[in-house]
Amino acid sequence: MKLIHLGLTALVLLTVVSSSALAQDNSEEESNIIIDIVLPLGLAFIMFSLGLGLSIEDFLLVLNEPKAFGIGVFNQMIILPIIGFSISILAGLEGEMAVGLMILACCPGGVTSNILTKLARGDVALSISYTAVVSVISVITLPLIIGFSMDHFMGAESPDINILSLGITMFLLTSIPVIIGMIIRSKAEKFAIKSKNIVNSTATILFVIIVMAAIISEWDTLMENIGSLGPAVILLNSLMLLIGYQSAKILGLEISRATTVSIESGIQNATVGITVGGLILASPDGGLSTLSLPSGVYGVLMYLVIAPFLYWRIKISEN
């Protein structure tokens, strides 16, 4: 129990430090407790819940599944941003909305993708390994792609962001909480396993609250852009599920691993997108950033998109 308390205390300290890292580059913006504390702490806790279910072996598993891992990483790191960029242009998204979609397209999977993989009768061990490794890689790729996207879609209106500071913040809010969770699991495995359900339930509640807050706080902007944003988000989700599954099948993976690659390619961590959007550009009225809105909408719509896929996989596995 003492180890858990130390871990949670470390998460709070990480939140304060990471918020300060970006605050130095955005000192002209008004401080906002939701953006500065609540969102980062929620994300850190969700990543902590992921780490609580991980071990070193989960990272090493990718060495035993190089083809499956390589296909998934290529889809997520290369294909997904290209598809996101193309959809932004085709859907006519501009400025913050387009950048918000690109932020989403840079996000790794999360606990949700692991749960969905289990429901879809996929390879859960591979899903967990994939999520863990890509979460670390995205610390580098996400700030770089966001920087390019802001220059392209916002131009002179693009706020000044320090790519290094954003990368450090991402590391503090995503990778370190995962490591803390893994350390607690290694030191108190029985307790970590027993408390995992409670921690995951809390993380799910936080996810719902964060998504709903993103949508409600920017409701007017959502209504103005729903005609283009909704289809764009649905198309991104659908295409990546299809590309993930078909690429895996073409390259000879069995159906359970193809299912895993599909879900890991097509399901992004909306909480990361919402939090990053808020950290980069806070709303002037104190709400969440418009940059967070595509991730918020995605956090709701992805379940509607993946439901038929889950139904199909469950039916096949029963036959």
Task: Describe this protein's structure.
With 319 residues, the protein is mainly alpha-helical. It has a single domain (2-318), classed as Up-down Bundle (Na+/H+ antiporter like fold), CATH 1.20.1530. The protein is built from 13 helices and no strands. The chain has helices at residues 2-23, 33-51, 56-64, 66-90, 95-106, 111-119, 124-154, 163-187, 189-217, 219-250, 255-266, 270-280, 293-318. The radius of gyration is 19 Å and the shape is globular. It starts with a helix and ends with a helix.
Provide a concise account of the structure shown.
The chain is an all-alpha fold and 319 residues long. 82% of the residues lie in helices and 0% in strands.
What CATH calls the topology is Na+/H+ antiporter like fold
**What is the H/E order?**
HHHHHHHHHHHHH
Helix content range of the residues, please? over 70%
Query: Spans with pLDDT under 50 lasting ≥5 residues?
Result: 26-31
Mean pLDDT: 80
The number of helical segments is 13
**CATH class descriptor:** Mainly Alpha
Number of domains: 1
Q: Descriptors for this entry?
A:
mainly alpha; 319 residues; Na+/H+ antiporter like fold; single chain
Write the layout of secondary structure elements.
Layout: H1 2-23, H2 33-51, H3 56-64, H4 66-90, H5 95-106, H6 111-119, H7 124-154, H8 163-187, H9 189-217, H10 219-250, H11 255-266, H12 270-280, H13 293-318
